[in-house]
Specification:
259 residues; alpha/beta; six-stranded mixed sheet; 37% helix; 26% strand
Length: 259
């Protein structure tokens, strides 16, 4: 069983991912501690989303190691990369769900049905308990009155808040966010960021890939700049965003904040 007393929730060392001859992730290492909000920033096409998908094995890594609460999920072995069984990976995904760019909701199910699906199917919760928990979470994200609506009846921002509610319903140890505002119209971004802000303030452990640099500057504990499949710089936002050490990071930050 995972040792949940450890401070390190997620530890990644030398992660690599190739698609055929193309090395998308060359060498990424990071550690996310309990209660930490770690943000990953960088240019489009730099490997950020692929990296995140490797962490819960929606994409299988090509090399490196991933530990979750001190238990390895993949590691280098003499015979090559060793990856845990699909059963073990499903357990890890349940404890570390992902909020996707494109929402990934079930269009034929209501908001409430989308949120209770995981707890009932994956965690084995009774329907009554799953509904009670889901309704509490939907109140928290401001969607209690929309619980019987279908995704097609929701705005993009509401859909994304359903995605966040769905992740919270799994009673997670950590949440992965893959550019949660990138598919939203600008006027809908604030509600989603406010929901994420409240989770950070409550001490939820999370790893967030984002283009929202000002949001990261204000709320991140640690910021990782990823470009060309590598970590170019990392540290507190006061360093990486406000006073970066490398010309590449400075040029990126300046370009983003000027828009």
């Amino acid at each position: 069983m995972p040792n949940t007393d450890r401070d390190d929730v997620l530890k990644v060392v030398g992660l690599q991912k190739s698609f055929g001859p193309n090395r998308i992730i060359k060498d990424i290492s990071l550690t996310v501690k309990r209660g930490e909000a770690a943000f990953v920033i960088g240019p489009s096409g730099g490997g950020k989303s692929t990296f995140l998908r490797c962490l819960n094995f929606l994409e299988m890594p090509s090399g490196g190691s991933i530990d979750f609460f001190g238990d390895w999920l993949c590691r280098e072995a003499s015979s090559g990369l060793e990856i845990r069984s699909e059963r073990d990976l499903r357990k890890a995904r349940a404890r570390m769900p992902m909020v996707f760019q494109q929402f990934n909701l079930f269009d034929h199910r209501t908001v409430l049905e989308n949120v209770i699906e995981g707890p009932m199917v994956v965690l084995g919760e009774a329907r009554k308990d799953a509904i009670e928990n889901a309704e509490s979470i939907l109140r928290r994200v401001g969607l209690a009155e929309r619980r019987h609506a279908y995704p097609a009846q929701l705005s993009g921002g509401q859909k994304q808040r359903v995605g966040i509610a769905r992740a919270l319903a799994m009673r997670p140890d950590a949440i992965l966010f893959d550019e949660p505002t990138s598919a939203l119209d600008p006027e809908l971004v604030a509600d989603v960021l406010n929901t994420i802000r409240s989770l950070i303030q409550d001490g939820m452990t999370m790893l967030i890939v984002t283009h929202e640099i000002a949001f990261a500057r204000n709320l991140a504990h640690t910021v990782y700049f990823v470009d060309e499949g590598c970590v170019g710089e990392f540290g507190p936002p006061e360093q990486v965003i406000k006073s970066p050490n490398t010309p590449r990071v400075k040029a990126f930050i300046d370009a983003v904040l000027q828009h």
